[in-house]
Write a structure and sequence with these properties.
By secondary structure, this protein is mainly α. The chain is built from 8 helices and no strands. Helix 1 packs across helix 5 and helix 4 runs parallel beside helix 6.
Length: about 190
């Protein structure tokens, strides 16, 4: 394997393919195709397969990129001036993002991906990042001190799955999150 730097156009193609693929698989799940990704990215299918030899490799890269972005957002909020606002805002962001994330996970699983390997680290890192935000919000008195990350993460996963699978509209999602947030508020 050559150690020379990747050409700029190849790097640009790869980044564009990943960006388009995240949208395509986020909307279409396992029904989405690499051909649609190629067409919308403005490249040939051979270019997609040169960067990602299989659909599974492409969807795995999308999943890793997606979780990396979410973790980066959470880490960026770790030192926020208002830890409560940062925690609740990120919780809301994850619930709003759930349908796309679950569709990408479905596409990955259907393409033969498994829970081990590179794609498995993202959910663990995200959980840890949420834990940091939770701890800061608790230290600031914005979240009850008697809740643990296990409980909060169960609420987060439940709300995310409900929002995705029940196709909750904005008012219902907002109201549901309001109820959850009221339960997490200090007594």
């Amino acid at each position: 394997m050559s150690m020379e730097p990747t050409r700029a156009d190849a790097r640009d193609n790869r980044a564009r393919i990943l960006e388009v693929a995240e949208d395509v698989f986020g909307r279409g799940g396992s029904a989405a195709s690499t051909e649609e990704v190629a067409r919308l990215a403005g490249v040939g299918i051979a270019t997609v397969f040169r960067h990602f030899p299989t659909k599974r490799a492409l969807v795995e890269a999308v999943l890793v990129t997606h979780f990396d972005r979410l973790c980066g957002e959470a880490r960026g909020l770790a030192d926020a001036a208002d830890p409560g606002r940062a925690f609740f805002g990120f919780f809301r962001r994850l619930v709003e993002d759930a349908a796309g994330k679950l569709a990408i996970i479905e596409a990955f699983t259907d393409a033969g991906g498994d829970a081990a390997g590179r794609a498995a680290q993202g959910p663990r890192d995200l959980r840890e990042a949420v834990g940091v935000l939770l701890g800061r919000a608790q230290d600031a008195g914005a979240v009850r001190a008697d809740v643990r990350l296990d409980e909060v993460y169960a609420l987060l996963v439940g709300a995310s799955r409900a929002a995705a699978h029940l196709h909750l509209n904005e008012p219902v999602r907002t109201s549901t999150l309001g109820i959850i947030f009221d339960g997490l508020a200090p007594r």
